[in-house]
Structures are given as C-alpha cells and as structure tokens.
Write a structure and sequence with these properties.
By secondary structure, the chain is an alpha/beta fold. It has one domain: 3-Layer(aba) Sandwich (Hypothetical Protein Mth938, Chain: A). 28% of the residues lie in helices and 32% in strands.
Length: 120
C-alpha cells in the first residue's frame, strides 16, 4: 500500500516521491496524480462528486479527503450523497489529520483512495 510520508504547504511526499501541486489524488492501486485541471479551474476550494467518481470506480471502499492545511476546501452535498449511494465511506478532515487516517486505513488493508488539498 502506498504511504504518505509528509506534507508541507504546497508539497507532499508519497513513498519517497515529492509532488508539488494543489491537489493530489491517490488511487487504491497506489497510482498518484494531480486533480484534473479543468475541475480545479472551476472550483479550487470546493470538491464535487466528479472528484471522487474515479476513486470509487477504481474500488475505493473509503475515500479520505484532505480539506487543506486550514480546511479551506468544502465538499458539496452532491459528493456526500454520491459516496453514500455508492456505499463508500467518506472521511473529510484537515489535510494533516486526513493523511494520518489514510495511512492507518492502508496499513490495515482497506481499499482506500484519497484526494488531498495541500494548500490552504
């Protein structure tokens, strides 16, 4: 399972690899990528249903959302409803705490995905 090593403002280290971006997406298979650019342009402080559809389709039973260092990102009700309908646990916390939860759930074998905002 992939592990998030550390995070600072605008920087995250995952399995020893450093990423500098606003939002990072981690799939249950360990694939890491940035949040789709078009979605960020429309709503960089709001996560929507479309932000988690690929994670759930990839088999995530839990999606951990990091809402930023200062919890600057909000989740839409549409996202919460979609996760509930999909029987996917949605955990949203400030990013540093979200990282701890992501690592813990991965350590016990959960199929976990993540969307982490690494700025505000």
């Amino acid at each position: 399972m992939v592990r998030i090593d550390s995070m600072g403002f605008g920087v995250i280290v995952i399995d020893g690899n450093k990423y500098q971006m606003r939002d990072v997406v981690i799939f249950p298979d360990g694939t890491v990528r940035r949040r789709k650019f078009g979605l960020w342009l429309a709503s960089h402080h709001k996560y929507e249903k479309e932000d988690i559809t690929e994670l759930i389709a990839a088999g995530a039973e839990t999606v951990v959302i990091g809402t930023g260092i200062y919890s600057g990102v909000k989740l839409t009700e549409d996202m919460r409803e979609y996760a509930n309908e999909s029987k996917c646990e949605l955990v949203d916390l400030p990013s540093r705490k979200a990282i701890q939860i992501f690592n813990e759930k991965g350590n016990i074998g959960n199929k976990v995905g993540a969307l982490i905002h690494i700025l505000c």
